[in-house]
Amino acid sequence: MRISVIGCGYLGAVHAAAMAELGHVVVGVDVDEQKIARLAVGDPPFFEPGLPEILRSALGSGRLRFSSDPADAAGAEVHFLAVGTPQAAGGHAADLRFVDAAFDALLPHLAPGAVVAGKSTVPVGTAERLADRLAEVAPHATLAWNPEFLREGFAVKDTVQPDRLVYGVRSPEASDVLDRVYASAIEAGTPRIVTDFATAELVKVAANAFLATKISFINAMAEIAETVGADVTQLADAIGHDTRIGRRFLNAGVGFGGGCLPKDIRAFTARAEELGRGESVAFLKEVDAINLRRRHRVVELARELLGGSVHGRKVAVLGVTFKPDSDDVRDSPALDIAVQLKGLGADVVAVDPEGVENARARHPQLEYSTSTATALDRADLVVLATEWAEYRALDPAETLRSVAAARIIDGRNVLDPDAWRAAGWTYRGLGRP
Ligand SMILES: NC(=O)C1=CN([C@@H]2O[C@H](COP(=O)(O)OP(=O)(O)OC[C@H]3O[C@@H](n4cnc5c(N)ncnc54)[C@H](O)[C@@H]3O)[C@@H](O)[C@H]2O)C=CC1
Ligand SMILES: O=C(O)[C@H]1O[C@H](OP(=O)(O)OP(=O)(O)OC[C@H]2O[C@@H](n3ccc(=O)[nH]c3=O)[C@H](O)[C@@H]2O)[C@H](O)[C@@H](O)[C@@H]1O
């Protein structure tokens, strides 16, 4: 099939390359010419495991190309909209400027029978608005909403082998076209839910709201555990054995960040308020508040461990990305903690295997390193903020030789407290003794 993907960021670039790998003929379109230039030569503009390989293979096959001209999308049977929907400046709602601009730019290039399939995460009601507009100006084309559930770090696998497909459609024809796009996943037995626009849009924000709530739930338990000296990691193991609860997404720590969970729960709240149903999701404000409190808690612990003030003390912050195996620093708890410590006068050195460039672009005031040894050198305090494999594997005895003082905050509860204490460290986790 001929496919276009409009917006080639974390979602769109992977989608374009993966669709071409599956045998479709794909053009990726983005307004960012630098991004397009890099993608076109097989050099991904961001870090995502497995993307370089499928990008180069798809480019080599001749089935994938990139362009900054929306006219190059002409002739495609399906146009995926994968542009950003960030939090609007000065508010909590989603900024739909990019969706509207991409949609408008596509209108003159829609072939008869073409399907415009929205992938971006949007407030409920967006698809209906765009479909009505399409019916007016390009009635020969159809709209569908096909939300995306990929996780960064696993984006390639999640795109090729999604755990479910959701189509919001008004006509069975649009659903048939999407079935042809995802033929291999469907053949492999991927569950597929065909529904209306509003349900499809809500599925996406509900899924992210649920995940955010699960993380904040365990972080709320961590707050209580801290007060009474209980261990939240054991608590999570114990409740997680109940298959109705499940152990996944119950890791307490510095909380959730990234380009999606935080902005999606805020946008959902804002949309529900617009709809007069604010009270239905008022709990998401608590979810957000619990999450942000965990970052402050780390800063407080740092102060406590350093005798009341971090001023002038060297703090090594391990990790700046919002999670390992990604270079994404959008709303990253790790970076936020580093910035807060710096703001309090600490001599922060932040280190990350992939995220330094992005972090520096946002917070040039911080000192960065790509070498863990440099960051640890004569540190008064170590904060493990993102659980990259290399930080999880740190040896307490060896690490001790680099630092000025053996104090560590394990912001992800991934180290063995006994081993670190036995090696002479003052160890503090989050919600565990
Ligand atoms: N990153 C992720 O893991 C996932 C993201 N999503 C959703 O997908 C959407 C995109 O997210 P990301 O890829 O993370 O954002 P991103 O910011 O990495 O990518 C968005 C891209 O759209 C481009 N763009 C903006 N206006 C455009 C226009 N008029 N025409 C063509 N391109 C345009 C930008 O230059 C940028 O490259 C958001 O709605 C997000 O919530 C959904 C699931 C997973
Ligand atoms: O809409 C999106 O963009 C995506 O958002 C999340 O994916 P992602 O943001 O890539 O990362 P997650 O693995 O969900 O982690 C989100 C954050 O929660 C944190 N987290 C996760 C799990 C956990 O137990 N504890 C915890 O603090 C992570 O460190 C990270 O900061 C969802 O998992 C995807 O299904 C969804 O498609």
Automatic annotation (TrEMBL):
This is UDP-glucose 6-dehydrogenase. InterPro entries: 6-PGluconate_DH-like_C_sf, NAD(P)-bd_dom_sf, UDP-Glc/GDP-Man, UDP-Glc/GDP-Man_DH_C, UDP-Glc/GDP-Man_DH_C_sf, UDP-Glc/GDP-Man_DH_dimer, UDP-Glc/GDP-Man_DH_N, UDPglc_DH_bac. Its EC number is 1.1.1.22. Belongs to the UDP-glucose/GDP-mannose dehydrogenase family. The keyword Cell membrane does not apply. It catalyses: UDP-alpha-D-glucose + 2 NAD(+) + H2O = UDP-alpha-D-glucuronate + 2 NADH + 3 H(+). It comes from the Bacteria. SUPFAM superfamilies: 6-phosphogluconate dehydrogenase C-terminal domain-like (SSF48179), NAD(P)-binding Rossmann-fold domains (SSF51735), UDP-glucose/GDP-mannose dehydrogenase C-terminal domain (SSF52413). Residues 316-417 form the UDP-glucose/GDP-mannose dehydrogenase C-terminal domain. Pathway: Nucleotide-sugar biosynthesis; UDP-alpha-D-glucuronate biosynthesis; UDP-alpha-D-glucuronate from UDP-alpha-D-glucose: step 1/1. Keywords: NAD, Oxidoreductase. The keyword Cell membrane does not apply. Gene3D superfamilies: Cytochrome c1, transmembrane anchor, C-terminal, NAD(P)-binding Rossmann-like Domain.
